[in-house]
């Protein structure tokens, strides 16, 4: 064989081996995943429907996965088909946090704030108003931001440890041991409730991990956004034993109802108000882990036993989604939640990885899940039928 013939034969074998390597990698990763990686991974793909259980396929119309090169710490779904995203940049050219709008339909990120160390975000239901917490000269500040006009509307040198926005003009804040409502136009605050036996200082800079505040307590709005719920442990005294309670506070009148959870509660991991005055919680009652429904009388009802977290409630379809952990796996599940309990349960996706955020879109048609990678985050969209 001539030298040229041997050279052609060598390159031919090399091309065959390369093609076989690509095929093996595609089979191992999945064709869609290989395409995602080959295209710098910042792309959208349709997931393989064969990866889903049959009962989930009957409820899911479309599944989309998008890779973000930045690590997503917080997100909040908005009413206009977009998601507010707080992420940490991972590339060598820039670092720090970035506040962006993620367009679900167009699958694009629209930068809003990139030059501030943002540590917490919250948005009004329509997405027009945003509050974010940041530091300036090592002092905490709260910033009111207009997302449509991309401009700052106000700034004050304090923040609440937890902040919610029931509408585009007001914020609800847990400040020390007070619940207060702030008028964003005037920056004036109105105290509506005092939480007993509770002390929490404003987080210091060294209490932050990246752009994530160590969240010690939680506030949750009712589906109609007129009440705020807060779980709280009332410490034991010489005259009484300690107990877990849930505050139900009317944002208009300030009236506060105290729901004493009947039973020995070791932990409350998450709460989600549903219906008029019911609360779904994941935690441990009487030594039993599971999802419970608690009425206004404080009577807990075990809905599903097991270790569950990342609950999110969809008032449009009365559906509760949550993650189930066990055997080193994290499974996304959903079920109808009503007076009958949890019914019509199905698996949305099995073994998705570590899920640190799970939320319904505002229209109740899409479930979003965020998972982490070593160099970024994945955003999964599950659109329901």
Question: What spatial order of strands do you see in the largest sheet?
Answer: 1-2-31-30-29
Helix content: 10-25%
Integer-rounded radius of gyration:
24 Å
Shape: globular
Give the uncertain stretches in residue-range form: 22-44, 197-216
Please give the count of helices.
Answer: 3
Notes on the protein architecture:
With 385 residues, this protein is mostly beta strands. Among the domains are: 38 residues; 104 residues, no CATH class. 10% of the residues lie in helices and 53% in strands. The protein has a five-stranded antiparallel beta sheet, covered by helices on one side. The protein has a four-stranded antiparallel beta sheet with strand order 3-4-5-6, with no helix packed on it. A four-stranded antiparallel beta sheet has the order 7-8-9-10, with no helix packed on it. A hairpin with a 4-residue loop joins β5 and β6. About 11% of the residues have low confidence.
């Amino acid at each position: 064989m001539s030298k040229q013939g041997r050279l052609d034969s060598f390159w031919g074998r090399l091309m065959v081996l390369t093609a076989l390597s690509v095929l093996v990698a595609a089979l191992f990763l999945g064709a869609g995943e290989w395409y995602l990686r080959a295209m710098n991974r910042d792309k959208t793909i349709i997931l393989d429907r064969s990866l889903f259980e049959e009962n989930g396929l009957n409820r899911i119309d479309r599944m989309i996965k998008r890779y973000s090169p930045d690590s997503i710490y917080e997100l909040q779904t908005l009413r206009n088909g977009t998601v507010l995203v707080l992420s940490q940049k991972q590339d060598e050219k820039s670092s720090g946090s970035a506040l962006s709008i993620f367009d679900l339909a167009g699958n694009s990120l629209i930068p809003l704030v990139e030059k501030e160390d943002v540590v917490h975000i919250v948005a009004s239901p329509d997405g027009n108003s945003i509050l974010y917490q940041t530091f300036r000269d090592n002092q905490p500040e709260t910033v009111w931001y207009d997302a449509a006009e991309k401009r700052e509307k106000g700034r004050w040198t304090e923040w609440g440890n937890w902040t919610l926005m029931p509408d585009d003009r007001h914020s609800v804040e847990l400040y020390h041991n007070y619940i207060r409502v702030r008028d964003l136009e005037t920056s004036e605050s109105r105290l509506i409730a005092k939480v007993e036996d509770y002390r929490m200082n404003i987080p210091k800079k060294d209490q932050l991990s990246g752009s994530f505040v160590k969240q010690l307590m939680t506030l949750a709005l009712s589906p109609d956004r007129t009440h705020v719920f807060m779980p709280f442990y009332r410490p034991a005294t010489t005259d009484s034993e300690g107990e877990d309670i849930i505050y139900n506070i009317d944002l208009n009148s300030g009236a506060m109802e105290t729901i004493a959870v009947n039973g020995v509660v070791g932990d409350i991991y998450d709460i989600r108000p549903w219906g008029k005055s019911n609360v779904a919680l994941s935690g441990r009652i009487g030594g039993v882990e599971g999802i419970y429904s608690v009425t206004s009388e404080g009577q807990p009802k075990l809905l599903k036993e097991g270790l569950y977290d990342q609950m999110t409630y969809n008032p449009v379809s009365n559906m509760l989604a949550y993650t189930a952990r066990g055997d080193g796996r994290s499974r996304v599940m959903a079920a109808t939640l009503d007076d009958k309990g949890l019914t019509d349960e199905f698996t949305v996706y099995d073994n998705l990885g570590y899920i640190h955020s799970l939320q319904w879109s505002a229209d109740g048609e899409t479930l979003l899940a965020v998972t982490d990678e070593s160099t970024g985050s994945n955003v999964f969209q599950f659109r329901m039928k």
